[in-house]
Amino acid sequence: MSKNRKTNKAVDDSSFAKAILEALSKSSSRALNYKQIAKILDINDGPGRSKIAHTLNQMKLNGTVKEIDRGKFRLKAASSYFTGKVDMTSTGAGYVISPDTDKDIYIAPKHLKTALHGDTVKVYVHAVKKGERLRGEIVEITARAKSNFVGTVKISAKFAFLLPDNPKMPVDLYIPLTALNGAKDGEKAIAKITDWPAGATNPFGEITDVLGMPGNNDTEMNAILAEYDFPLSFPKNVEADAEKISDTISQNEISKRRDFRDVITFTIDPVDAKDFDDALSLRKLENGNYEIGVHIADVSHYVKPGSALDDEAIKRATSVYLVDRVIPMLPEKLSNMVCSLRPKEDKLTFSAVFEMNEDAKVLNQWFGRTIINSDRRFAYEEAQQVIETGEGDFADEINLLDHLAKKLRAERFKHGSIAFEKAEVKFHLDEKGNPTGVYVKEMKDSNKLIEDFMLLANRKVAEFIGKTEQGKKERTFVYRIHDNPSQEKLQQFVGFIGKFGYSMKTSSGKETAFSMNKLMKDIHGKGEQNVIEQLAIRTMAKAIYTTENIGHYGLAFDYYTHFTSPIRRYPDVMVHRLLQHYLDGGFSVNEDEYEEQCEHSSAMEKRAAEAERASVKYKQVQFMQDKTGQKFDGIISGVTEWGLYVELEENKCEGMVRLRDIDDDFYVFDEDNFCITGNLSGVKYQLGDKVRVKVKRVDLDRKQIDFFMVLE
Predict the structure, then answer these.
(1) 470 with 342, same domain?
(2) How much is the pLDDT for 69?
């Protein structure tokens, strides 16, 4: 009773906005949504929360607070001091990107105060005239982004240096000869900063790991992993914990689970996969309907909260897939053995089981722990052959699942789901890891079959937890959300595709989705497909993990999560634990704790994607090494003040034509229209134009390809 009186008093209090400001000031390090503010203010009823949301929007309009992410607010800075992250340039200057200002703050090299790329800093902004860019100087480094750097060792008679690979690292690391730890001149290594004495130009460091000679495949792949701060091995205690896990299943454990071992079950995965996360089962019911089981490796049975295995999985958050290797989130004993749904072996699973009719409508559903025994392991290519020929192992089952998947897909597209089929560049590699060929992986029906049943399971699990009866409190859960695209980015994209003769309607979210799907069909197999797909994906908002559900725009789902890949994604492990907790009748868990893990998982997912792209880029440059002087057709994929990026149609490798190398005119960069224009001739090169180029230089150390424009 007293709590209600306190709530009502707070809601009616004229100093309500002041209370919100105090709550935001107590949590100045991160943005808060109205639910988190309500928790701080001890407001639990609906009217109170609604008033917080309304007041926050009013405060945003009058400039008191700033909306950082959708529905998350923080105090608007009222002084000349800002906190943000440093974005270094190759010239040695930097920019501070702060959530407290819409403009980036330029930092001259002399004002960086030893700050490095990614560091969190406090910056003083100088007074500037209206319209001028913000300039400042760093007054404090509050958090270093990293202390380990990858580079090449250079040794002289009395000292050594590590020359960092990353062009955004503006200084070399001074390495005393006593701190080389066996590194030899010219080798690639990892060095850790140990000190940066006041007044010293270079930080002091020590070599922690020797990677090997540049150009060696293992050296270069490990260098990419180290550059993005992914560990090259598991700690000994984590490996030891994994080895202790038994691969036998007790009768007691089996008795607690629904048994699917006598139901036809199989996996469909990439040909080189070893970590089989998911399996499908199928049987016809007496009433003529079908029971489809989506069976997912029960990682949470083996990986317990607070264990060394769990701590390491939280830290890694994801497996990393480079061109020629996988760096798993879990040790091999778990990822490839105990948890992997290998054929002809009993395996513990967490399942979503659906009763469906011929039209793929879900009539009943069940979630819970199960045991399976997979009858067959298919590669995607094998399953595709079964679909195309109607012959082979489990042909009836695979073709029925394909039929149902196509029904699910059609229904999804009818409601506005976008059919992104991003071209995936793959390589043929020799025994030393050198690329002998480049090809683009195509999504076929067998891939889409698995995708659609995984989407179904993810959506239904999210709905099961997220949809609450009126008047009941929402339960904390991990969602995969995708915000609507900004109209500004959409209009830029529409302008770009217009150069190829394509158009889109964007008056509503659904119309945008339908138009995007038509565009994806129209460009399929065309030379411009990859460039347009890449830009379309960049136009969309980024999908992230969060406890605050806003739905998934790209899939047109009101509720969506990740449930189907716990061997390689930590959010799926969280989802399994939460699902079981709520199935057992548990109360809602701590939202802040899970939101923090969601933010970390989203950040690690982004970093893993960057490492993957870096490995692809390296292999592309390596593939082009012997092609100097050869001519190729390409498409302008980027326009900058220093040159044009060109993607080759034949192999999707990307390089640059530098403005100084286009010597038939003086070209001026037009940032607003993504083009350069010749001063005398008026000749224009713009994003999306088809061009012919000749390979000028291939620099494997810098991972760069330079082209000449062929002026014919």
Answers:
(1) yes
(2) 67
Examine the domain organization and report whether 62 and 130 are in the same domain.
no
Secondary structure (3-state) at 47: helix
Give, for 136, the enclosing helix (H) or strand (E): strand 134-143
> Which regions in the chain score pLDDT beneath 50?
1-14
With a CB cutoff of 8 Å and minimum separation 6, the contacts of 100 are 66, 74, 76, 77, 82, 83, 84
Do 413 and 549 belong together in one domain?
yes
DSSP three-state, residue 154 = strand
Pair of tokens at residue 308: 């060394």
Does one domain contain both 276 and 423? yes
Q: Are residues 126 and 243 both part of a single domain?
A: no
The pTM score is 0.85
DSSP alpha helix (H) spans, 247-379: 251-255, 299-302, 308-316, 332
Q: Which helix (H) or strand (E) holds 8?
A: helix 2-12
262 and 333 assigned to the same domain? yes
Q: Are 299 and 576 in contact (CB under 8 A)?
A: yes
Q: Provide the 10 A C-beta neighbour count for residue 421.
A: 14
608 and 635 within one domain: no
Report the domain count for the chain. Answer: 6
What pLDDT is stored for residue 91 in this prediction? 81
What amino acid is encoded at 14 in this protein?
S
Range of the domain at 685: 624-709
Domain check: are 499 and 442 in the same one? no
Burial of 62 (0-12, 13-18, 19+ CB in 10 A): exposed
pLDDT digits (tens, 9 = 90+) for 179-199: 999 999 999 999 999 999 988
Q: Facing residues of 154 across strands?
A: 161
